[in-house]
Design goal:
This protein has 76 residues and is an all-alpha fold. Helix content is 71%, strand content 0%. Helix 4 crosses helix 5. The chain is globular, with a radius of gyration of 13 Å. 12% of the residues are buried.
Amino acid sequence: MKSLYEFRTQHGYSCQFMANKLGISKTYYWQIEKGTRRISYDLSLKLASVFRLMPDDLLYEDMKIVIENRGNKNHS
């Protein structure tokens, strides 16, 4: 599965373009892309629509990693 960065660059979009499409600041978008900021359901719908995808298609791998990391912390 591609990362959000890969989707964005494959389409030739800048962080500023994405931020404008989503109605958020460039910094906020960059934090989402880097995984340091959580994303709301509504924003995930907007984000997926930019790439003509379903939110699950865009975010599934990221969520899988978060869940796996939580599981590893609980077993340590």
